[in-house]
Each structure stands twice: as structure tokens, then as C-alpha cells.
């Protein structure tokens, strides 16, 4: 599809983009896009390292996650609809993540 575009069509598209967003906003948009791409890349690397560590721990026979504290299990967490809005807060049922032997 993109191979069918001629140089005049590409120039026309670029002119429309500049007119829509403005010449001042385009560098800021490109900068924020670059930051987002770097963040995504670093998060993907972190997830990959975490997955490799879990696989190594599972292969060694260790539990991938430590057992949660007893105090954490008894206190229910709540979700609030908006900051300061306590009338619509409700407790959240969290899954029990203890390893089963």
C-alpha cells in the first residue's frame, strides 16, 4: 500500500500533518514518542529478565514468590472511584496466591 504513494502524495500528507498539529507541536510530539518507545523497551527487557529469573528459580526448586505476610492477608484493600470519594469505595477480593504443594 505504501509503495503506491508518489512523492507528491507524501509531500501533501506531510503538509496536512503540519497544518493539523502545527510546526511547534511536532518536535514535542516526536520527543514524547521517543520517550514512550524507550520506556516500552526498558519495560520489555525488565519483564524478560524477570521471566528468566522465575524460570531459573523454578528449575532450582525454589518458590518464585515468597509467602505474603499474615498482616497483609487480613487487611482488605479498597478501590476508590475518585480521590477523596469514600462513599463509593468498596473492598476488593484478591486471589490467594499461596503456592499449592
Architecture overview:
With 101 residues, this protein is mostly helical. It contains 3 helices and 2 strands; from the N terminus they run H-H-H-E-E. Strands 1-2 form a two-stranded antiparallel sheet. It starts with 6 loop residues before the first helix and ends in a 9-residue tail after the last strand. The model has no long low-confidence stretch (mean pLDDT 75).
Would you spell out the secondary-structure blueprint of this structure?
Elements: H1 7-21, H2 25-60, H3 70-74, E1 77-79, E2 90-92
Antiparallel strand pairs: 1-2
Number of helical stretches of at least 4 residues = 3
Distance between the termini: 55 Å
The helix fraction, in percent, is 55-70%
- DSSP strand content: 5-15%
Task: Give the spatial strand order of the biggest sheet.
Answer: 1-2
Largest sheet: 2 strands, antiparallel
- Give unreliable regions as ranges: none
What's the SSE pattern? Answer: HHHEE
In quaternary terms, these chains amount to single chain
Anisotropy-based shape: elongated
What is the residue-mean pLDDT, rounded to a whole number?
75
SS content category = mainly alpha
Supply Rg: 25 Å
Would you count the extended β strands for me? 2
Amino acid at each position: 500500500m505504501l509503495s503506491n504513494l508518489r512523492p507528491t502524495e507524501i509531500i501533501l500528507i506531510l503538509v496536512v500533518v503540519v497544518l493539523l498539529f502545527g510546526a511547534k507541536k511536532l518536535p514535542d510530539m516526536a520527543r514524547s514518542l521517543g520517550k514512550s518507545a524507550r520506556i516500552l523497551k526498558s519495560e520489555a527487557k525488565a519483564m524478560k529478565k524477570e521471566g528468566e529469573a522465575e524460570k531459573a528459580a523454578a528449575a532450582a526448586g525454589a518458590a518464585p514468590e515468597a509467602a505474603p505476610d499474615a498482616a497483609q492477608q487480613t487487611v482488605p484493600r479498597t478501590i476508590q472511584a475518585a480521590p477523596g470519594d469514600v462513599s463509593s469505595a468498596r473492598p476488593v477480593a484478591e486471589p490467594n496466591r499461596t503456592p499449592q504443594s
